Amino acid sequence: xxxxxxxxxxxxxxxxxxxxxxxxxxxxxxxxIHALIGPNGAxxxxxxxxxxxxxxxxxGRIVLDGVELTGMPAHRRVRHGxxxxxxxxxxxxxxxxxxxxxxxxxAHTGSSFRCLGRRSADTRLHARxxxxxxxxxxxxxxxxxxxxxxxxxxxRLDLALALAxxxxxxxxxxxxxxxGPEDSAQMVALIRxxxxxCAILLIxxxxxxxxxxxxxxxxxxSGRVLATGxxxxxxxxxxxxxxxxxxxxxx
Length: 251
Prior knowledge:
alpha/beta; Rossmann fold; 2 domains; transport; nucleotide-binding; AAA+_ATPase; ABC transporter ATP-binding protein; cell membrane
């Protein structure tokens, strides 16, 4: 059996006497949307921060596409194919959508330190930025200032910035947070369309979205993996129902 695209093995993180993650194992396959769920305080944010490099594990290892990421700083993990959208939208609010996209594409191509010439005159960067705009439904707002965009559109721009790094694994931290039903439905469709581009680790409290999108689900409780399986298995799992899903699982 071939190795998973991504694996986290035995992740432990302690904050003083608190064990936030207790030997967490997680694997994501190529082309998979894998959801990570659990009640508040389960350790989801800690796991994602360990994977992305914002926290260092006390034990365990992290491997992406055969490359050991454990101990590697966050920016180097991006170069090796790991990208992340945070729960709080992070865009360059004072800049236009097009300038946001150009900056993100430029950073990934390694041309960030070219001092001569304008980004907008670089036809290669221009073409890649436009392609991202069309893919993420941003073509009609290219010249609007990012901070003035509706929340749902800002989330799509944030996703476009993460995709500019051409990730093998994309970490999506509550992409539906703060969205109404229409924006959430659009985001679900957009995330589903990305599965051919990269694998996705999805952290999300909107269980309708999770059940629509996920190929497999890992459930955390008190810093430990409670269960991993396909959607039907997780919905029917008695411990998951008791700890997290409750009546939703029977709906």
